[in-house]
Write a structure and sequence with these properties.
Elements (H helix, E strand, L loop, with lengths): L13 E5 L3 E6 L17 H8 L10 E2 L5 E2 L13 E7 L2 H12 L4 E9 L6 E5 L2 E3 L7 E2 L5 E5 L2 E12 L2 E10 L6 H8 L12 H4 L12 E9 L5 E5 L4 H9 L3
Parallel strand pairs: 5-13
Antiparallel strand pairs: 1-2, 2-5, 3-4, 6-12, 6-13, 7-11, 8-9, 8-10, 11-12, 13-14
Length: about 260
């Protein structure tokens, strides 16, 4: 439990696989991938990485906060939101960073997520193909709906319904999500756009949370389950972050 925010935070990332170039971790819920310039209390993956692998310090390229201050993004090739748990790959050296970064840029990385959403997903599987821009109502949010402002970038998400049922009289669905692109908040935005926002999403499901039982979950119900990509060594590695226990319990709650 974070003593300042009262949120449940796991102790530290679990190493799923590593070699001289990379480390795959299971990022806990509540951890920032890298500092964001304003959240001063949440634990940060970059700090953990540099403490465990000092050689990774300075690998990659820095980021910048809105006020122009530099943010340490050592080893960070891609990111997960603080509220999202799951598999994340980190680079230990600059050649590995460049190699991995190119794969993400060229969409050669296979990603799979698991999530619970409000309501029934009547289609067993399908594709959400909606470009994403910025929300006109909230600067923190992105939007795949009418009225989105700024440049709207291509965003594609495949989905498959894993389970569906009711918990305490309220319908929910358990879904497998495969993003084909990597836009900010893509899965959260796409599911909001089809009126099936992710359970516990304070940013995109604020209209649902207050009147829902939220499957008795006290977190965003989104987990990065699989990450598969080529390594600098030439081999392809498929890392899997076990589904959190609270997800397994939630799946049983709606099993029909």
């Amino acid at each position: 439990m974070n003593p300042e925010t009262g949120e449940k935070v796991s102790n530290e990332p679990a190493v799923l696989f590593e070699n001289d170039d990379v480390v795959f971790i299971n990022k806990p819920y509540g951890w920032l991938t890298h500092a964001d310039g304003h959240n001063q209390t949440a634990p940060v993956v970059v700090d953990w990485l540099c403490a465990k692998y000092p050689e990774a310090k300075g690998v990659g390229e820095p980021g910048y906060a809105k006020d122009g201050s530099e943010l340490d993004r050592s080893g960070i090739v891609h990111r997960l939101d603080r509220e999202t748990s799951g598999v994340l790959v980190l680079a230990k050296n600059q050649p590995a960073y460049e190699f991995l970064k190119e794969q993400f840029k060229e969409r050669l990385v296979r990603k799979e997520y698991r999530a619970f959403v409000y309501g029934r997903m009547n289609d067993r599987w399908g594709t959400i193909n909606r470009p994403i821009g910025r929300s006109a109502k909230d600067s923190r949010r992105r939007s795949a709906e009418r009225g989105a402002k700024g440049v709207r970038r291509e965003a594609i998400t495949d989905f498959e319904r894993v389970g569906m049922g009711e918990y305490d009289g309220e319908p929910f669905s358990y879904v497998r999500l495969i993003p084909k692109t990597g836009r900010t908040h893509q899965l959260r935005v796409h599911l909001r756009a089809i009126d099936r926002p992710i359970v516990g999403d304070g940013l995109y499901a604020e209209h649902k949370i207050q009147k829902s039982n939220n499957l008795s979950l006290d977190r965003l119900a989104l987990h990065a389950y699989i990450l598969e990509l080529a390594l600098p060594s030439g081999e392809t590695h498929r890392a899997m972050a076990p589904v959190p226990q609270e997800f397994e319990i939630a799946a049983e709650r709606i099993a029909e």
